[in-house]
Each structure stands twice: as C-alpha cells, then as structure tokens.
C-alpha cells in the first residue's frame, strides 16, 4: 500500500487521516495538522526535539512511520497545557529560566513527563540519564536539570503518585 | 541525501507471523523488515530505498520477554530494549545484557528499538549484540519450510550480513538459563553517552571460587562483526584469576583484534585500550571493581 487510513488520538482529540506511507509521525503532526510545537531537529533520532508520547512512552516522532500508528494515543507538548494554562512541567521550565532559544524545550518537556510518570522523585543522576536523548545547544543543561527537579516537587498529587510507584516496585 | 524525506516504498502490514513469512518468501530480496525502525528509518533517509517495507506493527504476540530458571530467557522479535530493562530477572541473571541495555542509545530509542533488531543490524558496534555474544544463545528463524535455530556464534557472517535467509523472519532469541557460578559484565567507551561505542566488551565467566572454569569474551568495534576472543579465552580457562593471569589476558587482546580508524576513534587507540577494558570487565564480573 502507498496510502493508509488511520485514526490518531492526539491530545485527547480524534483525527481520521489518510497518510502516505512514507510520512513520519512528525511530518503528519507538523505539515498536515499544523501542530508545530513538536520540532524537527536532526531527523535521525539523536537530538530529541521531536519527542512525543505514544501510549505514554517517549519516542522520536522523526523515526516513526505515521501509517503504523493507527489507533494510538499521542501526546505533544501543547497537549500538556489546559487552554493556554501551562502545566507544572512547563511552568517549572519558565520559572527556572531553562529556555533560551526554546527549540529543544517541547522535547525536553515531553521527556520530563515520561520520566516523572515512572519516577516522581528522580535523583540528579536519574534526570541526566533520562535526558541523554535530548540535546540543548544553549543552556548547558544546568537550568534544565533544575527545572526537572522543580517539576517533580510541584507535581499535582505528588504524594499519591510516589505511593503508587513504591507499590509497583514492591 | 536528506534526513527529512523518506523514499517512496510500498508498505506491507502482515497480521501474523505466517503472513509475514509468506510475504518474505514471495518478495524475497526486495523486502526490508522493520520492527522498531530506529535503524531502518535512518538507513532509508540516507542510503537504502527498499521496494517494499514490511512493518511488524500488526503482528501480535512477539513483544515478550519471558524468564524461566530451567529454560532461560526468551526475547520476542518485537520486545524493545526498554521491555528488557523492565524485567528484574534480566538485571539479576544476565548482568552484561542488562548493563548494555541500560546504556544503549537514548531513552526514546530504547522505547522503540528491539533487541533482535540490534542483532539483525549486524553492526560491530551493537551494545546488546556484544553482551548477547558473550552470554551465548540461539536465534530462532521462521521460514516457509519451518523453524530453525542458529547459534549466536554462527549468526553474523560479515558487516551487515546475518545467517537469516531472505525468506525467513527472526522470531525470537533464547539465552541459556543462569548457572551457579556464572557471572557476566559489559563495558563500553564513548565520547558522550548517546554515541555509538568506540569500543565495547562483554564477558561471561563460569567461576569456581577464584578459578575460571570457562569463559566467553566478546568485543565490538574491532572487526567487521562483533568478535569473540577465543585465544584470550583459552588463557583464562582452568586458571585462578591472579594479577599475573589478568595481565597476560590483557596483553593477548591487541593481537586478536583488527580495528580500523573511523570518526569515533583510531585503530591505534582501540588496540591500546582493548586489553585494559577487557581486564576491567573481568574484574567487574568477579565483583572486584
């Protein structure tokens, strides 16, 4: 097949699309749906600017064929804000001034979201390990690491999430 | 070539292993198989233009990592590196593989890339490949005339080439069950952590006290395929692991490898550090480092 009918559930909305099979998920998000918050960086899965969550897992949308994503739940950085109100991760990046040019920020935010969902209280080493796939050419990473720490501290329902993760480990 | 534009191809989406095998035997060499796609997608952006791309996305039942203390570890063709890390038994019993998986690429790639895909890429730099070579195991290939098993020692034929025939689908990898006294370790050298390795090494030792009964030593980035250091293994077998023995083992490694100069390192540097890295991996496996 050269084209495929697919349904994507993006940020809680359903999209029925006919996509060319050689289009990446990033191509479809940006060029066909106009969701330009997800960025094109290297195109080869090294920089992390295109990071989105598919079924709550952080992946590189530049290395993902849209045609193989039928029925999947996808979250982009815009999906974290509620009618323009930033969520705790986005707000932490602003508060800690962890943004200079901002191009890597949506990917950093999505990677942080996937880290905190699994590990609500990460150590600095765990934060740095998690962010290895996200390159920033401006900040030198210190402020980004601070922002992730702050996001962990300000996560809504933090105590309940920590309890659930502890139970899962046991 | 561009990192943005994918070539034109025909997408095949089989719904079962049987259908995938049938497609492979019909289309033969014109098909490229994709599981996670982290290697195939990059290859398509820069070099390869397959006529047909077969995605395993809709093939059910291949995303398992199953441990049995008697039979070993079974890893399905769609199990990702992250799936492997989620299994406590991998960390406990297959230490070299767990460590290779943990340092493999980036979180995003670990969530997508498959363990079998790393073997099938047949790159000398594959981290999981190196660890699996040291641990040992068999790759199960499903063809139109049935299943066959190929030992990991016979799996890589040359750079980018495996024993998989064009009409076969690699369905699973089986690692041997853990034995008492068996221990393993993995080490790699890179410039920054998400780079491909400039050198990687994995060891599996069968120990009785401080005496090495048997050893499997694997090294990557030093030959066209991952390499087993069989001459160096012979220096370990039946020996107590004294400082002198480890010194002789380290000294034997440069004579057994044939690294090249490339953008990640030089042949000279790789030869210089290869013995040291192997010795450290042996010490780590034995809990001394």
In terms of structural class, how would the helical and strand content of chain A be classed? alpha+beta
Task: Give the helices and strands of chain A as they follow along the chain.
Answer: EEHEEEHHHHH
Low-pLDDT sequence parts of chain A: none
Major beta sheet of chain A, specifics?
5 strands, mixed
Q: Quick one: overall form of chain A?
A: globular
End-to-end C-alpha gap of chain B: 46 Å
Fold and architecture overview:
Chain A: It holds the Pfam family Fer2_2. Chain A: It comes from Aromatoleum toluolicum. Chain A: Keywords: 2Fe-2S, Iron, Iron-sulfur, Metal-binding, Oxidoreductase. Chain A: This is 2Fe-2S iron-sulfur cluster binding domain-containing protein. The complex is a heterodimer of chains A (about 170) and B (about 290). Chain A contains 6 helices and 5 strands, in the order E-E-H-E-E-E-H-H-H-H-H. Chain A has about 170 residues and is of the alpha+beta class. In chain A, strands 2-1-5-3-4 form a 5-stranded mixed β-sheet, with helices on one face. In chain B, strands 4-5-10-6-7 form a 5-stranded antiparallel β-sheet. Chain B has a 4-stranded antiparallel β-sheet with strand order 11-12-13-14. The interface between A and B is medium-sized, with 33 and 29 residues.
What are the salient characteristics of this protein?
heterodimer; A: 36% helix; globular; B: 289 residues; alpha+beta; Uridine Diphospho-n-acetylenolpyruvylglucosamine Reductase, domain 3; Enolase-like, domain 1; 3 domains; four-stranded antiparallel β-sheet; 14 strands
State the gist of this model:
The complex is a heterodimer of chains A (170) and B (289). Chain A is of the alpha+beta class and 170 residues long.
